[in-house]
Amino acid sequence: MLDRMRRYLNKAEALHALWALLLALWIIPQLGGCSATPAWMVNDKPSWRTQYALSHVSPAVVRINVVMRDFRNGVPENFRAIGSGVIIDKQGRVLTNFHVAGRARRIEIILPDQERVRAKLIGSDHWTDLALVQMDMAQIKARHLHFKWATLGNSRHVQLGEPVLAIGTPYGLSRTVTSGIISDTDRFFNATTIDGYETGWFNNWLQTDAAINPGNSGGPLINLRGHVIGINTRGDPTANNLGFAIPINVARRVIPSLLKDRKVSRSYIGLELEPMLGLSRFYHLPPEKGVLIRSVDHDSPASAAGVHALDVLLSVDGYATNCRFPEQISAVRRYVADQPVGSTLTLVLDRMNNGSVMKQKTLHVVTQRLESVISSRHQIKPWGIVVRNLTSAFLRQQQMKMIRGVLVTSVQSGSIADSAGMEDGDIIRVVGATRITDSVQLKILADRMAKTKKPYAVVVKRGRAERTLVFTPGGGS
Fold first, then answer.
1. Whole-prediction pTM
2. Rounded distance, CA 130 to CA 270, Å?
3. Separation between Cα atoms, residue 336 and residue 62, nearest integer Å
4. For 204, phi and psi rounded to 5 degrees?
5. Active site residues
6. Which residues fall within 8 angstroms of residue 376, CB to CB, at 6 or more apart?
7. Helix or strand or coil: residue 43?
8. What pLDDT digit, counting tens, does each position of 373-405 carry?
């Protein structure tokens, strides 16, 4: 019994001594008796949640090397660019930005283990600035390469202040991780373009203070559960770490169309909208009802149906178009755009009558296919010019009637076209006796005309007037 008590007392004394040592190691630094906490007491490792998230997504993040083509002075020039992407499935598909890979002539994927793989574009959508790229699976199989893919999360569940990580290739520095929080879940930008292409019209953005720099574009923004919640797209160069990502739910809606049709087909009716904040009292409406029609596009379906600027749109096919704040505009645009092309929509709107009385009207609008202001460029080598096909959106923007022809975007100095007096911005209407409808027809005709030795006339529209230019074979450089 005495031996057992002695052993118990010895254990108690040892425990008391251990507690005293630990207490001293904590108290002494507080009193200034020690210059620093002992190194063995410092936990300098990333949190287990950060490690967990990175282990699940980082192996799926790739660097994307692309070769693009631009035209300067009517002459094509290739240039290289770098972006990021994330592998999203076992088929080797990579999600990235349109401005990274959507116009690339050549695409190369660099895997996290630094192996290089050829890739090709599956489809792209500049309206959301998203693109889908396919890695060369035959090359991966032949070289016995391996890759992992990430899990797409749900951006509806993202919360203000939530910790996030951005992974990508800023300034060519592959496998770079930056951290921050979600600083806004519903950021709105109006009339945004990237390289002239409309983007962000049908979605708002996730805003983060995780650093997003050139080269991060197309890489994933992830939460600490290891889910991709956004695609990093843009930063603000004038601000201190203000970055913006496309919510991953936007990509979820776009991906099936890119896989099936290589693009996304959307409807257009031609309305520019403005939130009702500050206007509801003037229109004698409840503060959260309707959206103001700021303008109606020239020659648009809405114009043909009798919609007027300053009407208040109340609903589309029963969908309430309530926009008190700018952040609500994107949802209304998306609802209209998601309707089948050629469908008939019922618009209910209020119109000011006699200066103060609102009168409700119901109009029916047949949608058209949404087009971009700009189209792809084509080089007409015999003439030394670069042209684009005319789009209805471009003609509406220029307040022009719907005409046929092609737009000149660049003229080479000393070329036959330059010698004839052709300028950037001219619209080619007629060559010889042939009316021009598109760039393919113009290219065939220019090749044929290059073989003749006789001068021929080219009619162009410049501003509001048409001019006749005389092309002389052999007259250019």
1. 0.85
2. 23
3. 35
4. -95, 180
5. 99, 129, 217
6. 388, 389
7. coil
8. 988 889 999 999 999 999 998 988 888 888 899
